[in-house]
Specification:
Blueprint: H1 7-11, H2 17-25, H3 33-42, H4 46-56, E1 62-65, E2 68-69, E3 73-75, E4 78-81, E5 85-93, E6 97-99, E7 103-110, E8 114-116, E9 120-128, E10 132-134, E11 138-140, E12 143-146, E13 149-151, E14 155-157, E15 161-163, E16 167-169, E17 173-175, E18 179-181, E19 185-187, E20 191-193, E21 197-199, E22 203-205, E23 209-211, E24 215-217, E25 221-223, E26 227-229, E27 233-235, E28 239-241, E29 245-246, E30 253-254, H5 264-267, E31 269-271, E32 279-281, E33 283-284
Parallel strand pairs: 1-4, 2-5, 3-5, 4-6, 5-7, 6-8, 7-9, 8-10, 9-11, 9-12, 10-13, 11-14, 12-15, 13-16, 14-17, 15-18, 16-19, 17-20, 18-21, 19-22, 20-23, 21-24, 22-25, 23-26, 24-27, 25-28, 26-29, 27-30, 28-31, 30-32, 31-33
């Protein structure tokens, strides 16, 4: 059922004076919620439509289209696109976004999950209240915010990545800012992060792990290549690399930060080609442990 907007209802949300006057002047009072946002977007008033969506919330309506191509687009319910999405401006969806093809947007914000059968490309922001899943790559010039993140190909982000869940990337990870995961991070290829790399659970990758700041993991880290950081390397439990483990000059390597010292041989061992310089904590096992 469509939500009807009235002037009194709108005033109760304390809108800005300019936006409220435009709303009244264009006779949007008494119309339904989605129609009002459509009118605002068509008039180039995307921020007014965003304000409505943020203040009046998502609806249970569903819109299904073959393809979506628009300068900007705002929809309060669930949006299903069987083909591709091309929105160079803002694409705002109150509930879920399901796309059979690829997505290319300037700023993409969705209240629940994002699913793409292709790649996701965003200029300024990629944000989901739930999970983000792309069959191909995810490439964002700005920041990424979500619960879980899953990419069938690589993850490339020139800003920060903030996840309240986990990340599963089937190729490489390249993040220019910070990468924070409340749970685990796993990549089939290499992981390169220029900012802080902070993971609540474990980190696993099938190639090198490199960081331009600190590396922190609440559980363990396992790499089939090197593990290198410009600052410190800290794990709550184990630390393992097929190559070398190297912290930055003057910084330490810490394993077993969340484990009692007596349990280090079982729960906080360190394995690599050679003993890391500056190994402060953890039980050094050496290369023979890989046999």
């Amino acid at each position: 059922m469509d939500m009807e907007l009235t002037q009194n209802f709108l005033r109760g949300k304390n809108p800005c004076a300019m936006g409220y006057r435009w709303f009244v002047r264009n006779n949007l009072s008494g119309g339904d919620y989605q129609a009002a946002m459509d009118t605002q977007v068509a008039a180039g008033r995307v921020e007014d439509a965003r304000w409505l969506l943020e203040n009046f919330g998502a609806t249970h309506s569903v819109l299904e289209v073959e393809h979506l191509e628009a300068d900007n687009f705002v929809y309060a319910g669930t949006l299903i696109v069987r083909g591709d999405v091309r929105v160079p401006g803002q694409l705002l969806v109150g509930r879920g976004l399901q796309v059979g093809g690829g997505i290319r947007a300037g700023k993409l914000e969705v209240g629940e999950d994002i699913q793409s059968g292709g790649a996701i490309f965003c200029d300024a922001l990629l944000k989901a209240g739930g999970n983000i899943k792309a069959a191909w790559s995810i490439e964002v010039d700005g920041n990424i915010h979500a619960e879980d993140l899953r990419a069938g190909w690589e993850l490339v982000c020139n800003g920060d990545v903030e996840l309240s869940g986990r990340a599963q990337i089937d190729r490489e990870v390249n993040v220019q800012g910070a990468l924070r995961c409340a749970k685990g991070l796993r990549a089939t290829g290499s992981i390169q992060v220029q900012g802080l790399l902070d993971v609540g659970h474990g980190i696993a990758c099938n190639d090198h792990l490199e960081c331009g700041n600190h590396i922190q993991a609440g559980w363990g880290i396992k790499s089939l290549g090197d593990i290198r950081a410009a600052c410190s390397i800290r794990t709550g439990e184990t630390l393992q690399a097929d190559g070398v483990i190297a912290a930055g000059p003057g910084y330490g390597v810490f394993a077993g930060m969340n484990v009692q010292m007596d349990a280090w041989p079982d729960c906080a061992w360190v394995r690599a080609l050679k003993k890391p310089e500056g190994l402060v904590s953890g039980f050094w096992e050496g290369q023979s442990a890989f046999a």
